Structures are given as structure tokens and as C-alpha cells.
């Protein structure tokens, strides 16, 4: 690829630009930001091609990456398509849900004769903004890709190669399966972290006694509330069943506590421990 356009100058977009320009020295990597202030911040981070001009960022690109809220993707793509040909361009996104972008962008992408292949790199943090970006963000992260429209294997491989260069482990699945899995391993944990913060810190003064347990289990609750509200609402159908299961497990624990059965409570906690201990080692930064 000779040119990559990253649209969205937040944590993910900035990290893609930093990693891309370092690890793909023969490729121009452009970062578009809506606000001049964020573009100036990107430049201060060492991002070479940061701009507020969609035309400048996208014209001649082989790969266009939408790194914006899902609800803004269609408008941005419509705007740039008026001035720049997207014909033959691979278009992907980094949204935490995949059904919504697929359904929202389909008609426009087809009309522009572009190729949409979804992406979801499982990287990020509770920090936001381009000043939090880092070149190593994607090292060791899983990246789930979707090719629901059956584009050529060469196009899928080209996108996969980009993520591999950034340090990701790539997996291919459908948008439906992606959203169902993310509801359990990403969206529900964020919701439970938020509940933990609300219950545990019902009196904020309790926080002075908090140790690593409270901080670790509620860390992601510090994420951007507006962004996470959008994610949960757009994936609400997949999220309902895991929420119901969580409620059932809490009811089960209440019953076990009423029974004062140490053996049963231990068994409950042991089952959770066994599942948690099977997680792959955390990626090193």
C-alpha cells in the first residue's frame, strides 16, 4: 500500500498513525481530525501527515480506516465521497460493534464501488484522545475481521497484513458472531465495572480504603461514558442475554449466602477462578 488514510484523531487513530508511519516506512499514513486542536496535538506527538482536510487525507489512499464513533461514520464517508473517488478502495473501521457499520455503510460503499471489510482491534484503554496514543498500542492485541460481503481473499489479506504489521493477532468471523462474543467479553465487563463502582463507592468516602481489587475490577468504568453508551445501545440485542445470566448468578450467590454453605460458595468461586485462569497471558507493552 502506498497510502493509508486514518479518519479520527483519538487514541486508536493516533496510535495507528504512529505505528503505521514507523513500521511501514514506504507508506504515507495520513491522520484526519475534525478539530485543528487535535491535529496540532497529533503533530506534537510526531505524526507527520495530520490534517483537517478530508480530501487531503483520503485522495489516492489504498486503505481508508474509520476510527470515529459508529454514528458518525456514514456522514464522514458521504462527505468525502463527494470530492474523492473511493473506487477500489478498501474501507474498514475499528468500531466495537460490526453489524451497525455493515448495515449503515453498505449502500454508500457499493455506490462508490469500494470494498468494506470490518475490523475490531481489541486495544485501547480508559484514556482518550490523541495525546494518549502510542506506537505499541496494538502489539499482541487480537483483531477480529469480518468479510460479510465476500470480497476477494487478496483484499482481506491486504488488510490483515496491515494489522499484522501493527502487532495484532487476526481472526476472521461474521458480524453476527463478533457482536455476540463482544457482548460477553467486552461490553458486559464494562457494565459490571460500572455497577461495581456505583455499589462499592455508594459513599465516595469509601474510596480512601480501596486497594488494588477495587481499582482493578472497576478500571474500565473510567472509560468515556458517551462512547460506551453508544456501544451498549447499538449492541443491546446481544447484550441482553449476558445481563440476564449475570442477574441469575447474583441471585444464585444470594441463595448460597442464605444457606451458609461454605462448600457451595467455594464451588461457585472455584468455577469462576478456573475460567479466569484460562485467559491467555496479558500482552506486554
TrEMBL record:
GO process terms (BP): tyrosine biosynthetic process
SUPFAM superfamilies reported in the protein's UniProt record: 6-phosphogluconate dehydrogenase C-terminal domain-like, NAD(P)-binding Rossmann-fold domains
Q: Which GO terms describe its molecular function?
A: NAD+ binding; prephenate dehydrogenase (NAD+) activity; prephenate dehydrogenase (NADP+) activity
Which keywords are on file for this protein?
A: Oxidoreductase
Keyword Hydrolase carried by entry: no
| Transferase in keyword set | no
Residues forming the Prephenate/arogenate dehydrogenase domain are 2-285
Looking up InterPro entries in the UniProt record yields: 6-PGluconate_DH-like_C_sf, NAD(P)-bd_dom_sf, PDH_C, PDH_N, Preph/Arog_dehydrog, Prephen_DH
Top-level taxon in the UniProt lineage: Bacteria
Please state what the protein is called. Answer: Prephenate dehydrogenase/arogenate dehydrogenase family protein
Q: Which organism is it from?
A: Oceaniferula marina
